[in-house]
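FAQ: What does a ligand-bound record look like?

Like this one, built around magnesium ion:
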Amino acid sequence: MNVPSPSPQSAIPRLDLRAVSVAFGGLTALDDVSFDVRPGEIVALIGPNGAGKTTVFNAVCGLVRHRGEVRIDGAPAPRRTADLTARGLSRTLQGLGLFAGLTVRENVLLPVAARHDADDRVGAQLRALELEPLAGRPVAALPYPDRKRVALARALVTDPRLLLLDEPAGGLGADDIAELGVVVRTVAQAGCAVLLVEHHVDFVMDLSDRVVVLDFGRMIAHGAPDDVRDDPRVEEAYLGLKATA
Ligand SMILES: Nc1ncnc2c1ncn2[C@@H]1O[C@H](COP(=O)(O)OP(=O)(O)OP(=O)(O)O)[C@@H](O)[C@H]1O
Ligand SMILES: [Mg+2]
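The answer part, i.e. the structure of the complex:
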C-alpha cells in the first residue's frame, strides 16, 4: 500500500476545535463550530457584533463551559491559565487588560516574572516593539496606540506557539495597523499559529491564510480570503452591514 508522506496539511493542528458549542442560559453563543489553526498559519475569525468571536477565545482558554472538543497539538486543552501558558498559548483581550498603574516594563514582565531569563525576555520584547523609551512610564500615561503595543508585547513575551488576538487593530490608525501586520506576520513565520479576531476587513483579508465567518454563533463560511470575501452569505451577514454602517 502507498503510505502518503506527511504534508503540512496532515500535520497535527496547533489548535483544533471540534463541534464546539457554548450556551449562556437560553442563548446559543456558539453552535457546532469546527476549524483548526496550523503552525505558521494566520486564521481570521470575523463576524458581526455578538457573533461569538470572543466566546471562541473564552472556550479555548477554558473560561466558559463548552460542548465538543478543543485540542492543542492533538491533546485536550487544559483549563487552567498556567497550564495553557505552559502549552504555549497566549492571548490579547478585546479590552486591553493592562495594569494602568504599573509601568510598561512591569506589565510586560508579569507573564514571565517567575522565569530565570525574565529580564532578557522583557528587554528583547520591548526593543522589538520599540517600547524601550517608554519602559518606565505608567501605562495610564500612554496614548491608546502605545497601550495596544504594550498589550501585544505582554502576549509575545512568553514566545507563544499559539497566539489569540482579539481585535488587535481596533482603535489604531493606518500606520499602526501596518506595523501590527508586520509583527503578526513575523510571529507566524517563526512557526506560531495565530487566530485573529478583527473587524478591520482589509487588514484581515490581507494578512490571513484562511478566514472563518461566524454569524449568530454558527460558521457561515470558511476558506481563503478571496473566496470568503465573494461569498454572498458573508456579504449579507457582515460585509454588507459594515459597508452601510
Ligand atoms: N459571559 C456571558 N454571559 C452571557 N452571555 C454572554 C457572555 N459572553 C458573551 N455572551 C453573549 O454571547 C454572544 C456572543 O458574544 P461574543 O462576545 O462572543 O461576541 P463577539 O463576536 O466577540 O462580538 P463583538 O464583535 O461585539 O466583540 C452575545 O450575544 C453575547 O451577549
Ligand atoms: Mg468580541
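Follow-up question: can I read anything off the structure? Yes, for example: The chain has nine helices and ten strands.
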